[in-house]
Amino acid sequence: MKLLVFASLLCLVVAEWETSSNITVTGTVVCQSRRQPGIRIDLMSTGVITNDLLNSTTSTPQGDFTIFGHKKEFGELEPLLYIYHNCRTIRQGCQTRSVYPVPQSDLLGVYDMTFVILDVVTADETAVNCQ
Questions:
Q1: C-alpha to C-alpha distance for 112 and 130, rounded to whole angstroms
Q2: Are 80 and 44 in contact (CB under 8 A)?
Q3: Global pTM?
Q4: Predicted local distance difference test score (pLDDT) of residue 28
Q5: Which residues form the signal peptide (predicted)?
Q6: Phi, psi (5° rounding) for residue 107?
């Protein structure tokens, strides 16, 4: 019986540590001074073991995107934006996945990236979707 009471109290304490966070990210993807339609964009949450997908979208015919993500977790949301493109290829037959951190200061609001220039090499890029 004591174990059941202890477990119930522990669940209540843990639930209090959980926070609900959200973020909206907007921007326009550009390659070689041209807006890029149909670019896949994933909003991820950084995790201890893996990164979790919060939402996914593709850029409009004008290269614009808006993506919203929400998560209830321990601590603050640590969002990342993954952009999959062929503007520059790291390895022949692959796409490039460029990773952009989203500032913590923009949580619960809107982070406007304005123009995301895919020609520029980012610190965290990977070859993906190789054929």
A1: 30
A2: yes
A3: 0.81
A4: 98
A5: 1-15
A6: -60, 145
